[in-house]
Amino acid sequence: MANKIQTDILCVGGGVASLATALSLLRRLKAQGVTKLPRVTVIDKGRNPGSHVLSGLVLDPEGLKGLLTEEEIAKMPVQTKVNKEAFHLLLNGTKAFTIPWVPPMMRDHGMPVGSLTKLTAYFAKLVEDEGGEVYTGFAAVELIEDGSGRVIGVKTGEKGLDHTGKPKSNYLPGEEIYAKVVVLGEGACGILTEKLIAKKGLQSRRGHQSYAIGIKEVIEVPADEAKAGEICHTFGYPCDMSTYGGGFVYHVSPTEVMICFAYALDYAHAEKDPHYMFRQFKAHPTIAAHIANGKTVAYGAKVIPEGGYYSVPDVVTDGALIVGDGAGLVDTLRIKGAHIAMQSGCAAAETLASCWTKNDFSYDALKTYGELLKKTSGWKQLKRVKNVRAPFSWNLLFGVASAGCAWATFGAFPFWQVPMEPDHEALLPLRGGKLPAVPALETTAVSPDRLTDVFKSGTIHDEDQPCHLKIKDRAKCAECIKKFGAPCQRFCPAEVYRLEDGEIHVDFSNCLHCKTCQIKDPYQNIEWTFPQGGDGPRYTRM
Q1: Tens digits of per-residue pLDDT, 267-293?
Q2: How far is residue 152 from each of residues 141, 158, 177, 358, 360, measured CA to CA in Å?
Q3: Where are the beta strands (DSSP E) in 91-238?
Q4: CB atoms near residue 540 (< 10 Å)
Q5: What Cα–Cα distance (Å) separates residue 27 from each residue in 69, 366, 369, 372?
Q6: Which of 1, 76, 124, 173 has the fewest Cβ atoms within 10 Å of its own Cβ atom?
Q7: What is the pLDDT of residues 143-188, one digit of tens each?
Q8: Do the Cβ atoms of 233 and 250 come closer than 8 Å?
Q9: Tens digits of per-residue pLDDT, 64-92?
Q10: DSSP-derived 3-state class of residue 412
Q11: Do the strands 84-90 and 230-236 form a parallel or antiparallel pair, or are they unpaired?
Q12: Residue 451 β-bridge partners
């Protein structure tokens, strides 16, 4: 029988959105002289704070205003700030054009650059210092509702089941955690968040969400003090003309470079392999110069919500709020979301502080969160670039022109909502019914193969547990193999799916929890469920 736990405010997901909610709420109430503080609990499925958090972080300081003190900002775990930046159009595998000036919307000069994993752990410590509770290794697998449909808590997953679903000697039952309000900060494509959005119709008045897969490495390079703080962004190669994508290189210290390639999941050609493209990107002379004589030491992958303003669902329902990437709060032009996630957390905290002092957690009281979110600078940024992402699905040049017009007119043009098809519907059958031959890439210290990269992610799953990746219909799987050539082998950045003897085999122990398979599968035949809490990536430097 499940153990029942009572808290006041429950934040699901230990990213910066949830942690900003908890931190801002406790500080706000203390500043107001409130003596009886709520019990604020944050739970996360990762092994440690930040171990499932991945992002290339150039942090817009707008997100820190009113959240951290100047002293706390100075103590953040970042080693440098952006002091040199460039913007490149990669024309092909060898040539590039450097934009003579960095476009105004892309300028990051003076902003902190570093690891979101480390920053998340720092935020978790601040929350605990304020009296909040942060628990890791607990996967919230189901929302609990009362008879009226109000969200009143979550159930956490069982631990210690064998691969058949039977309890082992170390079995631990799940728990039921009840709260006055549940704050969902699961990140992009969060399972509970997606189910809640669908059940409550929170997306009904908005466009569907669209994603990119972001693949990232940390590379150690020979020390060069002059390089610390240098960054560059790219677009073009190896993307095609109708797919949004690009990359970045961040010198976060004299000896450490973060490198990332992002590729929109509405790509059309079934033969595309984002990890292969990531390696092509690193081999381009413009990029290779930044990582010469280096060694890859960390790896990860995660989806990025790119739908923007038109894809943000209603963020409030009875008993629950949605914050951060789970609500799609990412500036799709700058590919920045951490600062907006923090602002959404602060807006949620302001709402919850009022609810606590008035002892009113009704839907009408919670609705204030949506109104406060729309007053933030991050929301205004979303609105300004509301039609930036969609036009790139038509053509790169049209997308660039549309982005410029949107920025120049503060989002007024294009004045209509440019349509986008769901990511999984964009995939076309293999041309000629077979995969084209692709040249092999040389495996080096800065260009590991896929499985070597997975090893560097630190991902660990107890293999004697139920597989958390479910293929719902093997007949559909066979049809997908014939029509699309088993695209799951290529779009998965962790080699979870392998085609052997005409069937797909699932090696869930490699899973990076990026959710790409659930999003891009053309038959929507893969269901991502939760492994036991604590399993998955163990990021420390990402």
Answers
A1: 999 999 999 999 999 999 999 999 999
A2: 14, 20, 9, 19, 14
A3: 96-98, 112-115, 133-136, 140-145, 151-156, 159-161, 167-172, 175-178, 181-184, 211-220, 230-236
A4: 15
A5: 11, 19, 18, 18
A6: 1
A7: 999 999 999 999 999 999 999 999 999 999 999 999 999 999 999 9
A8: no
A9: 999 999 999 999 999 899 999 999 999 99
A10: coil
A11: parallel
A12: none
Answer yes or no: is pLDDT of 24 > 90.
yes
Q: Report the half-sphere exposure of 330 (CA within 13 A, side-chain side).
A: 25
Q: Which two tokens stand for residue 140?
A: 């919230």
320-322: strand order across its sheet: 133-136, 40-44, 9-12, 181-184, 320-322, 316-317
Q: Is 95 helix (H, G, I), strand (E, B) or coil?
A: coil
- Can you name the CATH fold of 430-439+448-528? Alpha-Beta Plaits (3.30.70)
Provide the CATH number for the domain formed by 3-69+118-207+309-384 in this structure. 3.50.50.60
Q: Provide CATH 3.30.70.20 ranges for the chain.
A: 430-439+448-528
Phi-psi region of 342 (alpha: psi -120 to 50; beta: other; left: phi over 0): alpha
Whole-structure pTM value: 0.96
Residues of the chain with CATH 3.50.50.60: 3-69+118-207+309-384
CB 111 within 8 A of CB 82: yes
